[in-house]
Amino acid sequence: MTTLYDFQAETINGGAKALSDYKGKVLLVVNTASKCGFTPQYTDLQKLYEQYQSEGLEIIGFPSNQFGEQEPGSNSDVQSFCQINYGVTFPLFAKTDVRDENAHPVFQYLTEAAPFQGFDTTQPSGKMLHSFLNEKLPHWMIDNSIKWNFTKFLVDREGRVVKRFESTVEPLDMKADIEALL
């Protein structure tokens, strides 16, 4: 049975990192961007990291420029931006394609393990993103791929995907799900 531990990815500093290095940890895997309406989620992701890291939570960010070109900088630019503006100390990986034919195998696995279930259209941000994608990129809505920046995947200590949270879900709203795995 495939788990997240079967993959590796390039770190933001250029080295290869086996995700099996996170065995025994609860993981939150997030595709990120520096110039997105959801970018302020970095603040609460960092709060979650600080609160739960000692209990076994790791957050790993994968910057991507696939959504409105909202991550145009180099890996070094991304790292500096995250540290200076949001105090990010959780690990970041190299800029990565997270959807379509060039999607990194990590995201192919994540989206297969946790299919898209739709947006919560009772919330303004969910309604807005649902409408925007249906109007501008309707073909994106018919599969399980990543829909936008800051899609989050919660992975248990055995490397199995437990839950997918769309971009519109605020990080602090995931606390109960995280705590259940710690």
Automatic annotation (TrEMBL):
It comes from the Bacteria. PROSITE patterns: GLUTATHIONE_PEROXID_1, GLUTATHIONE_PEROXID_2, GLUTATHIONE_PEROXID_3, THIOREDOXIN_2. CDD domains: GSH_Peroxidase. SUPFAM superfamilies: Thioredoxin-like. Residues 1-182 form the Thioredoxin domain. Belongs to the glutathione peroxidase family. This is Glutathione peroxidase. It comes from Paenibacillus plantiphilus. The gene is gpx1.
